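Renewal narrative, Specific Aim 1. Our central claim is that a sequence can be written position by position from structural information alone. The example that follows is taken directly from our test logs and has not been curated for this report. It begins with the structure tokens describing the chain, in the order in which they were read.
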């Protein structure tokens, strides 16, 4: 597990070096922020980090922080795609719109996590009681749906000659997969 963290930190340091050399490169900034959020969420997910955060900030806070950081990591990964697939202004406009969705999702999962007692929120994903609506919403609901929605919608910005793999072939949309 430490090897994974070492890999994340090494990639982050390399991207920070590249960002220092090219500070106005939006796709590079997005990748750097994605790696930063992923690297920051890793220690919070470890047992020692989680118990330390929970001791200081209250039970369940480490789980909430980890999920919010991973939500941000996915958002910045989507921003990388948006900035790479579209022209600069269209990518920025779309990233701002999606930031609003991410903000709403972050507030919603925070409210969901804070609205249940600790006993219900304790444990891991595999032992969570998914019959409690707030727990199901926290783990699988709007977070994954909004991220997937954003990623699939971003494919519409890709120009065919520039990004041939970015679009879904005809007949392979959501309805076809359902």
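The sequence written for that structure reads:
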């Amino acid at each position: 597990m430490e090897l994974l963290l070492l890999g994340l930190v090494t990639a982050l340091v390399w991207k920070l070096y590249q960002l220092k050399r090219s500070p106005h490169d939006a796709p590079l900034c997005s990748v750097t922020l994605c790696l930063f959020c992923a690297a920051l969420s890793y220690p919070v997910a470890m047992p020692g980090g989680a118990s330390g955060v929970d001791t200081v900030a209250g039970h369940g806070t480490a789980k909430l922080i980890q999920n919010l950081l991973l939500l941000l990591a996915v958002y910045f990964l989507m921003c990388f795609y948006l900035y790479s697939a579209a022209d600069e202004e269209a990518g920025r406009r779309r990233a701002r719109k999606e930031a609003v969705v991410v903000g709403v999702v972050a507030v919603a999962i925070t409210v969901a996590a804070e609205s249940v007692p600790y006993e219900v929120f304790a444990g891991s994903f595999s032992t969570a009681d998914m019959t409690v609506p707030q727990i199901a919403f926290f783990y699988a609901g709007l977070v994954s749906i909004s991220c997937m929605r954003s990623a699939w919608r971003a494919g519409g910005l890709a120009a065919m000659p520039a990004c041939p793999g970015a679009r879904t072939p005809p007949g392979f949309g959501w309805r076809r997969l359902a």
